[in-house]
Amino acid sequence: MNINRNNEIKEKAQGIDPYIVARNLDEISDLSSGNIYHSLNVIARRANQISVDLKKELTTKLNEFASTTDSLEEIHENKEQIEISKFYERLPNPSIIALHDFFDGKIYHRFKDEEEK
Of 1, 61, 96, 99, which sits 20 to 30 A from 45 (CA to CA)? Predict the structure, then answer.
């Protein structure tokens, strides 16, 4: 896992509007091979990468607070753990982040068919 890449994702995501915005499908398809399905495939794959990276990072941070003994008397609220969870909940959906990456030209993609030609 590349920590610098995760920090970049978090910094970039904080400036993105977390709400869904209607997009023109022609704009999306024009940015790749002109095929809307290829464009959406690229965006979906990038969204999966972002989701996996963020989940790994969140799990790592939350595991720092895990206790080795889990008795009912020792379970208590950890305010730092709650703040970390809230921060990740406020981040935009990985699909929205990936769509912004796609429009900004930050996603490099190619298809096997193109490589063989």
Answer: 61
- Total domains in the chain come to 1
pLDDT for residue 62 is more than 60:
yes
Tell me the residue range of the domain where 97 lies.
78-117
- Residues 91-111 pLDDT 10s: 888 998 998 888 888 888 776
CB 18 within 8 A of CB 90: yes
Q: Is 28 domain-assigned? A: no
Contacts for 95 with CB less than 8 Å, ≥ 6 apart: 43, 44, 47
The rounded distance, in Å, linking the Cα atoms of 26 and 28 is 5
Tell me whether residue 15 is in a domain.
no
